[in-house]
Amino acid sequence: MEKEKVEFKWLDAKLIGTDTVVFRLEDGASVKVRVQINRAGVAINLKNPDGTPAYHVDAGLGIQVVPPTKTFYIPKSQFQRPSPKESTMKPI
Question: In angstroms, rounded to a whole number, what is the distance separating the alpha carbons of residues 11 and 57?
Answer without folding.
Answer: 10
